Amino acid sequence: MAQSQADTQQDPLGSKPLDAVVVGAGLAGLYQLYRLLQLGLNVRTFEAANGVGGVWFWNRYPGARVDSHFPFYQYWFSKELWDESDWKERFPGQVEIEDYLNRVCDKFELRRHITFGTKVTQAKFDDSSGLWTITTDGNEQVTARFLVLNTGGLFDAKIPKISGQERFSGVAVHTSHWPRDQVDLAGKRVAVIGTAATGIQVIQTIAPIVGQLFVMQRTPNYAVAMKNPTIRQDQLLQMRQSYDDLRERAHNSFGGFAYDEMPPLFDEVPDDRREAHLRSIWDDGSLKMWGGTFADSFFNPQAAAYVSEFVRDRIRERVRDPAVAEKLIPTDYEFGSRRVPLENGYFEAFNRNNVHLVDLREEPITEIDETGIKTATAHYEVDVIIYATGFDAGIGAINRIDIRGRNGQSLKQHWDRSLRTTVGMQVHGFPNLFMTMAPFAPAAALCNYPICADQQVDWITDTISFVHQKQARSIEPKVETENAWMTHHEEVSEPTLLGQNKHSWYRKLGADGRPRELIAYVGGIPTYKMVCDGYRSSQYQGFEIR
Ligand code: NAP
User: Fold this and answer.
1) How far is CA 503 from the centre of its chain?
2) DSSP for 33-57, written as a single string
3) Does domain 159-221+341-390 sit in CATH 3.90.226.10?
4) With bands split at pLDDT 50, 70 and 90, how would you rate the model's confidence at 495?
5) Given the CA of residue 390, which atom of ligand 1 is nearest to it?
6) Rounded to an integer, what distance in angstroms lies between the CA atom of residue 392 and that of residue 133?
7) Which of 151, 200, 328, 534 has the fewest CB atoms within 10 Å of its CB?
8) Which residues contact 183 (CB under 8 A, 6 or more apart)?
9) Ligand 1 atom closest to Cα of 445?
10) Residue 509: pLDDT above 80?
11) Given this structure, which CATH class describes domain 5-156+393-545?
12) Which atom belonging to ligand 1 lies closest to the Cα atom of 91?
């Protein structure tokens, strides 16, 4: 690679600027660091945690595991890594994935480039030098030409403010702050607030361990029964032999999984075959049930209604008490219009004598006191409160950093006025700033993440390389380019059931409390890739290169 451009620039701090700073050492951040080092750049990563893994470092709650099935949840950049990887379960758990990411970090000698236990607090772009000045909570300042935020879309934990919660004398913990030495739950009285992907995993796992479990449900969730066999040696061999084929297909698939066949349209399947069709997909025990039932299941209300009723019946047949079953069944939105979690014994947990469903729509939480949770009609005495209440998704982690672009403008204030990005990776007004898993890309929510991380990191790396080779100072999307992407995004997302479901973390709330754009790009990976590749092959037409 050409001489580092940063060498020739005037650094406001007077020390030699870095070529790039990466924030975050999770799945995307590690790969980002690897790619930039491969370019020969001088790079540093800052990571808030004391270890690598991102969500897989923080979310060590009981039962944490991925919903992406073998062999799709892993890195794709090294066949050698595939040959060495020895996956144990079809849906690997947190421990297995964290170990894997640590192995990757060591294999590619990334650790020495990472400063752990350090949060980036501020990043300011200097118009005259074209450099970012980055400040950490350790009061260190560095300068760099490129700033890449691989901060993850699910980092900034949301704990609802409930009157009196600070008085609670037991243990209160958010699932994404789960302590390394675990929480003693054996025989305890436990409340779990939240029944989405995380809550479901916690509840099904701790139900047999705890004394009493109070499940505080506000909105019931559809969930699909996971099939999670151990992986056999012959499957690992097959995985390695199919690497090229799987890689090609997964990267060109709608959501990052390579399924063998395209699903039919709803009307293409005769009435008397629909049940059997869904049954065969259900029996796969994977997220195929979400995206692979009917080609029009995200658009066609009739198809969505049919699938919803099918899944409701699966809940009914597993929960013994019909009154409890009905409370667990969503009726005011269709299957697939929010993130569909997989579960493994979740519904059966409600057949246990020690598990009690508290329907917060009937009895909302009013207060937390020293001994437990008060609702409109009862008081639940508990020793532990588990908040499985989700995240400020998409932008929470980025907004924790005071980011100032051209003319000192604040990214947070800019987004408070109007949330927008160019393909989820850059923002007009913020030169040389890149991000992954940010809003308006498939990576924001609708993707098997390693596939989307791969594609985004590759695009960012190529873009940085292009600017670097050109010896240009900076790159940022023109406002027209950003507008065109946002218009396309809205046109694609609004007609879908995901776009129409206003109650989901896929939609951010605006300052006025009203839902804003869907953060997930629902046009699929191929269309998204085509747009990104188009920018690259046109040598970034529509971008300002200074
Ligand atoms: P989430 O989907 O945002 O769900 C939060 C849950 O907390 C919902 O049930 C929500 O109820 C409830 N809640 C929030 N505030 C509440 C309040 N004040 N009172 C009562 N209930 C409240 O968060 P998540 O379950 O952590 O999942 C986030 C994402 O992480 C998932 O969608 C998925 O992408 C990822 N994840 C993946 C896996 C996996 O791959 N297996 C596992 C876990 C998480 P409402 O629905 O009524 O708002």
Assistant:
1) 17
2) HHHHHHTT--EEEE-SSSSS-THHH
3) no
4) confident
5) 23
6) 26
7) 534
8) 171, 173, 384
9) 34
10) no
11) alpha beta
12) 41
pLDDT at 10: 54
What are 126's two structure tokens?
A: 């200097």
Confidence of residue 499 (pLDDT cuts 50, 70, 90): confident
How many angstroms is it from 66 CA to the middle of ligand 1? 14
Q: How far is the CA of 306 from the centre of ligand 1 (A)?
A: 25
Tally the C-alpha atoms within 13 A of residue 50's C-alpha that lie toward its C-beta.
3
Cα distance between residue 502 and residue 213, in whole Å: 30
Q: What is the pLDDT of residues 515-532, one digit of tens each?
A: 778 899 999 999 999 999
- Kindly give the distance from the C-alpha atom of residue 263 to the centroid of ligand 1, in angstroms, as a whole number: 28
Determine the distance separating the centroid of ligand 1 and the alpha carbon of 497, expressed in angstroms: 19
- Distance from the CA of 216 to the center of ligand 1, in angstroms? 12
176 CA closest ligand 1 atom index: 26
Q: Whose CA is nearest to atom 29 of ligand 1?
A: 197
Strand partners, 134: 123, 142
Ligand 1 pocket, mutate which of 389, 392, 437, 498 (most atoms under 8 A from CB): 389
Residue whose Cα lies nearest atom 8 of ligand 1: it is: 194
Closest Cα to atom 23, ligand 1: which residue?
390
The identity of residue 250, as a single letter, is: A
User: Cα–Cα distance between 151 and 289 in angstroms, integer?
Assistant: 29
Q: Is there a contact between 423 and 436 (Cβ–Cβ < 8 Å)?
A: no
Mutate to test the pocket of ligand 1, among 158, 161, 218, 286 (most ligand atoms within 8 A of CB): 218
Structure tokens at 500: 């129409």
Q: Can you tell me which atom of ligand 1 is nearest the CA of 338?
A: 32
Name the percent of the chain lying above pLDDT 70. 97
Q: Give the model confidence (pLDDT) of 333-378 as tens digits.
A: 999 999 999 999 999 999 999 999 999 999 999 999 999 999 999 9
For 154, counting Cβ atoms within 10 Å of its Cβ (0-12 exposed, 13-18 middle, 19+ buried), the class is buried
Q: State residue 3's pLDDT score.
A: 46
Going from the Cα of 332 to the center of ligand 1, the distance in angstroms, rounded, reads 17
Q: Is the pTM of this model over 0.85?
A: yes
Residue 316 to residue 148: CA distance in whole angstroms: 47
Report the b/e string of 480-492 with b at 16+ CB within 10 A.
ebbeebbebbeeb
Ligand 1: residues with CB < 6 A are: 65-67, 154, 160, 193-199, 201, 216, 218-219, 339, 360, 388-390, 505
